[in-house]
């Protein structure tokens, strides 16, 4: 849709020009901008991240060369993925590391760049997605909730934040995430996931909260299952941020 207040096309969506008594019309740039805005609204990016980009808000610490040497390659890897998609070696990304190191920031910056390039993408918090799918089984709650599972399967690019964040790993939880990952794997549909969970493939340790409740063995496989983990590593390039400190604490 054209922007009603556009000063180039005056809300028509077309720019008309005349030359040698001939008229021609071309689409106004505001139409593409409006489409991108609508696509971003459909992506359900949380308000707190509404201004996040690769250039805005991602902290590369000047006073810690070790952390900078870890964060800079991660930033470059995710930027390259968003720039080159879909011509990437693997269709997805897995960003792994402790809380507060910028995993969600990078994932949403990638989502926003993909939308800018004309792709469809949607953001889900892992636990919220499971809650919506559960609610979808109640026929009285409306079609939007019943569609959450189908949206997670079929959208072009799925961004899944805090993968494995559901600690109550029932058979239903494991089957649900396994089915989503398997569907996307089999259909080569991209998945960008973030996780705080440790894994032998990239290291890491259980979170402080896990240790407090005595769960010293919390791993990605334990939370999402062996089948989902295997397919996840097959379809995603892994970006690790273990060893980086919490940027929220650094800012304070």
Can you describe this structure?
The chain is of the alpha/beta class and 252 residues long. Helix content is 44%, strand content 15%. The protein has eleven helices and seven strands. The strands form two sheets. Strands 4-5-6-3-7 form a five-stranded parallel β-sheet, sandwiched between helices. A hairpin with a 2-residue loop joins strand 1 and strand 2. Helix 2 packs parallel to helix 3. The longest helix has 20 residues. The chain is globular and about 75 Å long. 32% of the residues are buried. The model has no long low-confidence stretch (mean pLDDT 83).
Describe, in short, the structure shown.
This protein is α/β, with parallel strands linked by helices. It contains eleven helices and seven strands. The protein has a five-stranded parallel sheet, sandwiched between helices.
Largest sheet: 5 strands, parallel
Mean pLDDT: 83
Number of strands: 7
Biggest sheet, spatial arrangement of strands:
4-5-6-3-7
Question: What is the approximate shape?
Answer: globular
């Amino acid at each position: 849709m054209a922007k009603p207040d556009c000063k180039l096309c005056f809300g028509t969506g077309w720019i008309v020009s005349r030359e040698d008594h001939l008229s021609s019309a071309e689409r106004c740039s505001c139409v593409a901008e409006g489409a991108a805005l609508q696509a971003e609204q459909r992506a359900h990016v949380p308000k707190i991240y509404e201004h996040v980009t690769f250039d805005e808000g991602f902290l590369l610490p000047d006073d810690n060369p070790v952390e900078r040497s870890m964060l800079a390659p991660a930033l470059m890897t995710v930027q390259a993925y968003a720039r080159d998609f879909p011509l990437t070696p693997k269709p997805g990304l897995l960003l792994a590391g402790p809380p507060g190191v910028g995993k969600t920031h990078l994932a949403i910056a990638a989502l926003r760049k993909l939308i800018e390039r004309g792709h469809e993408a949607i953001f889900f918090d892992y636990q919220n997605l499971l809650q919506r799918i559960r609610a979808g089984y109640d026929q009285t709650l409306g079609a939007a909730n019943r569609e959450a599972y189908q949206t997670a399967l079929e959208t072009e690019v799925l961004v899944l934040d805090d993968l494995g964040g559901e600690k109550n790993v029932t058979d239903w939880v494991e089957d649900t995430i396994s089915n989503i990952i398997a569907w996307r794997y089999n259909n080569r549909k991209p998945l960008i996931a973030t996780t705080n969970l440790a894994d032998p493939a990239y290291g890491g340790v259980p979170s402080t909260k896990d240790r407090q409740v005595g769960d010293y063995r919390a791993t990605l496989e334990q939370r999402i299952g062996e089948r989902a983990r295997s397919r996840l590593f097959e379809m995603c390039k892994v970006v690790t941020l273990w060893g980086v400190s919490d940027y929220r604490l650094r800012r304070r």
